[in-house]
Amino acid sequence: MEAAAAAAAMGGEEDGRGRKGSWYAVGERAVLVPYLREHVPRYHEWMQDPALLEATASEPLSLAQEFEVHRSWTLDPLKHTFIVLDKELIEGEFVVGNPHTEAMIGDVNIYMNDPDDLELAEIEIMIAEQKSRGKGLGQEVTLMMMSFAVEKYGIHTFRAKISDSNTASLKLFRKLASRMLPIVQFLRR
Ligand SMILES: CC(C)(COP(=O)(O)OP(=O)(O)OC[C@H]1O[C@@H](n2cnc3c(N)ncnc32)[C@H](O)[C@@H]1OP(=O)(O)O)[C@@H](O)C(=O)NCCC(=O)NCCS
């Protein structure tokens, strides 16, 4: 699905500040849902994998710490996280408000972490489940998140930090950058 079409499929509620809220986004192969407490145990299982920890520059956490990180991300106005659902794995119909943990395969988030430029967001994507990789989900979800960030947060510039050895991520972002060169910055880690 093109980014514009994904944006058109977005639904959600404002939280009063016009920013974080219960946003959902429905794409061709993926659905983005808010990161809910119900998602934390599976997310924590993913983050025991040394390869995922390295690829995402993360530290291993206890389950209690993961719940605390979830709470802080939920409250942080500068961070927006979605859990990625693989539509093929959703049991029955997709229902807004249902965490659909059976279909969760990764996450995507933006972080407005440059105090000098709040229209710049660092973007991170993880398709944790091997069975859902290589199906175009990473690319679709990254475009959906960028579209969301432009529309809801007024983001003008995206930054992706990717290690030299992460061939899959480099390929994904280079492909996107070749389409959207002016708004993507690359940094080496
Ligand atoms: C990087 C990642 C998000 C890619 O997700 P994905 O859903 O498998 O990617 P897609 O299927 O959308 O593929 C996007 C492009 O990358 C390429 N690609 C994907 N995996 C690849 C691999 N292992 N090696 C080489 N190219 C790869 C695809 O071929 C595709 O390009 P194409 O359309 O020209 O063929 C996923 O591998 C991942 O989550 N890795 C671990 C976490 C991570 O590294 N996150 C990024 C941190 S910066």
Description of the molecule:
Pfam families: Acetyltransf_3. With 189 residues, this protein is of the alpha/beta class. The protein has six helices and seven strands, in the order αββαααβββαβαβ. The chain has helices at residues 3-8, 40-46, 50-55, 63-75, 137-153, 167-179, and strands at residues 25-26, 30-34, 79-86, 104-111, 120-127, 157-162, 184-188. The chain has a seven-stranded mixed beta sheet with strand order 1-2-3-4-5-6-7, with helices on both faces. A hairpin with an 8-residue loop joins strand 4 and strand 5. The model is unreliable at 1-9 and 13-19 (pLDDT under 50). Bound molecules: coenzyme A.
Query: What is the C-alpha radius of gyration, as a whole number of Å?
Result: 16 Å
Q: What is the molecular shape?
A: globular
Hetero groups in this structure are:
coenzyme A
Mean pLDDT: 87
The number of distinct β-strands equals 7
Largest sheet: 7 strands, mixed
Organism: Triticum turgidum subsp. durum
Pfam family, one: Acetyltransf_3
Family: Belongs to the acetyltransferase family. GNAT subfamily.
InterPro entries: Acyl_CoA_acyltransferase, GNAT_dom, NAT9-like
Summarize this structure briefly:
The chain has 189 residues and is of the alpha/beta class.
Task: Please give a handful of descriptors for the protein shown.
seven-stranded mixed β-sheet, Acyl_CoA_acyltransferase, acyltransferase, N-acetyltransferase activity, 189 residues, N-acetyltransferase domain-containing protein, alpha/beta, binds coenzyme A, NAT9-like
